[in-house]
Amino acid sequence: MKKALINMDSGELVETPVMNSITIDSVVFGFEKGSLEVLLVKHAEGISKGKWGLPGGWIKQEEGIDEAAHRLLRELTGLDQIYLEQLKAFGDPNRFPNGRVITIGYYALVKREDYRIKAGFTASEAKWYKVREIPDLIYDHNEILEYSLQNLRNRVRQAPIGFTLLPEKFTLLQLMQLYEEILGVEMDKPNFRRKILRMKLLVDLNEKQKDVSHRAAKLYKFDNDIYQKLTRKGFNFEF
Amino acid sequence: MKKALINMDSGELVETPVMNSITIDSVVFGFEKGSLEVLLVKHAEGISKGKWGLPGGWIKQEEGIDEAAHRLLRELTGLDQIYLEQLKAFGDPNRFPNGRVITIGYYALVKREDYRIKAGFTASEAKWYKVREIPDLIYDHNEILEYSLQNLRNRVRQAPIGFTLLPEKFTLLQLMQLYEEILGVEMDKPNFRRKILRMKLLVDLNEKQKDVSHRAAKLYKFDNDIYQKLTRKGFNFEF
DNA sequence: CCAAAAGTGTTCGTGATACACCCATGT
DNA sequence: ACATGGGTGTATCACGAACACTTTTGG
């Protein structure tokens, strides 16, 4: 049962058969210079021309929704293997102007260093915005973004997912600043060190920072195998 | 744009225009005699005749999804004002045998005492099952149930929602047993008392149990206004 | 009397918090 | 010398865990 479908926003013809009342929209988080950022895309055509929104798209008939979310992000960023979690479905009957469309929200955490290398879109089409400087977005995308921020704040305290936003090798202060930024709190450096090191989740790389105008800090990395092992022993990440 | 639609499971004609690729399925939790239970319904017709599944249905064109979930539960149980939260969308391309249908999972917490009074279905069509004795369900409903259990275990530790499963007036031991059952742990009575009372969330009703063959316990109730007030002051429910 | 659950008291250890202080490195 | 961040030490306090013990009520 092949269908010819029209993208309701851009007017563009959608080739492959997709589910025409459900979309996916993803909130892609990045962390750069102490700020939490979100990747937004500019709508080139259709009613909301020029306005920014979350990256998203349609679900193909034969693919799962997680699969679709991954595919859409790969098409946009060139990145595979992205940390991606479903938020929930948003289904206000009036959220979408051109018909009844329910969207399934996702949020992703990426390392900005990776994104820079393999960007699939040009700068004019996609741009990082600091979460404190998000403009008016199309449809209900501001609501989805707000919800995902709440969700991120909860999740980051209960699972070691914050590392996904940092480079492979990071210092303890970088990690702390990440938590401070996401949770919107101030933390005590000495106490943070002890707390995170006590968990024994981090691998000391026996390397130090270079080219810094102060005492170089040790570099660490997060080891997921260790985390899995600890979890099986009953360890519970709590922050 | 009115459509004539067929309920893909039962073959029944669906009168009002609904979204035909999305359903809602709800996990309704109850708590009775120390056991956590789930409300299941028997499928009377269609391929899965005789098999049990989660209560669910279609979303109407002009209603929101939370609204639809509430309506469906009202139709089933006669209950309004139910505690209801969205879980997430389930969208495996093969989850539904007769076509591509994505379902949005919800979970609800009800007081069994209320349910008993206003039941809308007969016993042969709907039945409470202990969570440890769930049979094979239709489609991916076992998966949805399992996921909602995980979710309930998380949520119950971070928000005061457990009370929703208990009668208006309850004893501290009942509350403790609720937590023990949901979380699957054993707790220390004295310590539990102090912990929950220290939060000052409960109102001492100055009433006691009656007709019990041991020292009667004080009755308490949960006061949501107090909780809101404390929350605004920075209080955070943690268990 | 006993059984069963209600309810209080006390001890111990761990971890969160606050903060003083020294170390290393570039300008 | 001093600014900047790295890193250690320590006192205090609250809370969770464990458990001994007293109280109330029905049978």
UniProtKB/TrEMBL annotation, chains A, B:
Pfam families: NUDIX (PF00293), WHD_NrtR (PF21906). PANTHER family: ADP-RIBOSE PYROPHOSPHATASE, SLR1690 PROTEIN. The lineage of its organism: Bacteria, Pseudomonadati, Bacteroidota, Flavobacteriia, Flavobacteriales. This is ADP-ribose pyrophosphatase. It comes from the Bacteria. CDD domains: NUDIX_NadM_like. Residues 21-152 form the Nudix hydrolase domain. Signal peptide: none annotated.
